[in-house]
Write a structure and sequence with these properties.
The protein has 10 helices and 16 strands. It is an alpha+beta fold. The strands form 5 sheets. The protein has a 4-stranded antiparallel beta sheet with strand order 1-3-4-2. The protein has a 4-stranded antiparallel beta sheet with strand order 13-14-15-16.
Length: 328
């Protein structure tokens, strides 16, 4: 998308990637004291909310705010995942041999980006705190899981839960407010049973075995687990499964139902072994809002167009979501 400040390469009509790399290495060598000489940043939009030109313009302005405006840099646009994004490659050494200021770099980077796009993370955190407090939960641990699901890490200090995002504490919630919400909440056996029936139904056609998030560039995502069951619950019932791990072992899970604003302890719904076992032979498949089961003796592997023996529509009831209704 853009190549800037590679003055010595302007005499080359078609510079190669190796030429840019050599130039950056040459600039980096001007200051041996700088350990992490390469700058590699990704700026990502949600979905396709910003096109490649908008993202490139934001990248130019961000580099200037961060002190890289006069350094050589390249901007690439990628659309290899659902979110449009640009990659920035530059060097942390200036041509005058000085280094680009790196103190509190991660914090300053997010502040600069938010200023450019007109986003107020403090105001957003206050709104999200109010939203979280409207959910039903039975413990402080569940509330922290809910915050994590909303993108915040939380820690308890001085009788408050502090919400952290973008490398800074954005908002605090007094513990007595959270404890009041816990006392007021009444868990619903009906909601637990509804979720259990739907999960048992979905496990007939998709696997509940969790796998680590495939992202290699985001340390937070690498710690998360996902499953086909979780994807289906999110799509059909507005519910999230959060797997809890110790090392590489899954030791428990929480279900957050965004339709009823309830946080469920997984062990109250279904046992962990049943939830996470591999599905070797699906009994049917998903078609729209229906689960179509194979006829007896049929399987996905030995028929090209399976003839359904029965259908089951998954609907969300007005009172409690996730109740499966059987039909022919």
């Amino acid at each position: 998308m853009s190549v800037r400040n590679f003055q010595a390469l302007t005499i080359i009509s078609k510079p190669r990637a190796a030429d840019f790399k050599s130039y950056l290495q040459m600039i980096a060598s001007l200051n041996p004291k700088v350990k992490n000489k390469q700058l590699h940043v990704s700026i990502m939009a949600k979905g396709h909310s910003r096109d490649k030109n908008e993202l490139t313009d934001i990248a130019h302005q961000w580099l200037k705010k961060m002190g890289y405006g006069d350094n050589p840099y390249l901007i690439y646009f990628h659309s290899d995942n659902p979110n449009n994004h640009v990659h920035i490659v530059s060097v942390r050494v200036c041509k005058n041999r000085k280094s680009v200021p790196s103190r509190y770099e991660k914090f300053r980077a997010s502040v600069a980006l938010h200023e450019l796009i007109g986003f107020d993370p403090v105001a957003q955190a206050k709104m999200d705190a109010g939203k979280a407090l409207r959910y039903g939960f039975t413990s402080l641990g569940q509330f922290l899981v809910l915050l994590k699901n909303m993108g915040y890490s939380g820690y308890v200090k001085d009788s408050a839960v502090h919400m952290v995002k973008h490398s800074r504490t954005l908002h605090s919630i007094e513990l007595n407010i959270i404890e009041f919400c816990i006392r007021q909440y009444r868990p619903s056996p009906i909601a637990n049973n509804a979720l259990r029936r739907v999960i048992e139904l979905f496990l007939k056609v998709v696997s509940g075995k969790p796998v680590r998030h495939p992202s290699f560039w985001h340390s937070y995502l690498r710690q998360n687990y996902r499953s086909d069951l979780g994807v289906l619950l999110k799509e059909k019932l507005e519910a999230d499964i959060i797997y809890h791990s110790e090392g590489r072992s899954i030791v428990g899970f929480t279900v957050i139902n965004h339709h009823t604003n309830r946080v469920h302890d997984g062990k109250e719904i279904i046992d962990l072994i049943t939830l996470t076992k591999e599905l070797d032979c699906p009994e049917g498949y998903i078609q729209g809002d229906e689960i179509i089961f194979y006829k007896k003796g049929e399987s996905r592997n030995n028929i090209s167009t399976p003839a359904p023996s029965k259908k089951m529509s998954v609907n969300i009831s007005e009172s409690e979501p996730g109740i499966a209704r059987r039909g022919r």
